[in-house]
Amino acid sequence: MLNDLLKRNLDWSRRRHAEEPDYFARLATQQSPEFFWIGCSDSRVPANVVAGLDPGEVFVHRNVANVIHSSDMNLLSALEFAVDALQIREVIVCGHHGCGGVKAATEDLPHGLADHWLEPIRRLARQYAIDLAQARDAEARRDKLAELNVIEGVRRIAETPIMQRAWARGARIAVHGLIYGLKDGLLRDLGCSIRLDDATMEAVQCR
Ligand code: CO
Q1: Active site residues per annotation
Q2: Helix, strand, or coil here: 75?
Q3: CATH number for the domain formed by residue range(s) 31-206
Q4: Cα of 15 to ligand 1 centre, how many Å?
């Protein structure tokens, strides 16, 4: 299995080099991505592939069910580096329909550590119980919950001191919420973006 993987890597590297001889030399000396992607660890939602971006174009952080914990040092370190050092322009929180992590958060089964990790999604499910009850079936309810988790994630990212500091110094960084459909391969804008308003110089939600 590993040998297959290494062989595919060798083929890819040779092909890439043949297409653009200075490709690796250029990437090795600098990365200047426009995007910071916060997504689910799900193997079916790789940031570069679904967004059609090449290596070097998106800085990525992924965890189970793309949960934004305000004290997650891993996420905060990546966010700080993306904002302050890489000076990315767009932060994207991307969830997906059919998310196993969201499903686990809606089940009355013990999942060990994952239950601690997924607690914010359980909280959202309680908070929006009336809205969610209107979904036509359990799958639609979970997909709606996945969207609420993204919208909540966008808010939480915007509330971090890292983003607040960046906006206070006038950095033009927007935070967006997207949902990916496993069944059609499409990214959809959830219309919950937060960006700096040019008139007031304050971060505001916009559609
Ligand atoms: Co997922």
Answers
A1: 40, 42, 44, 96, 99
A2: helix
A3: 3.40.1050.10
A4: 32
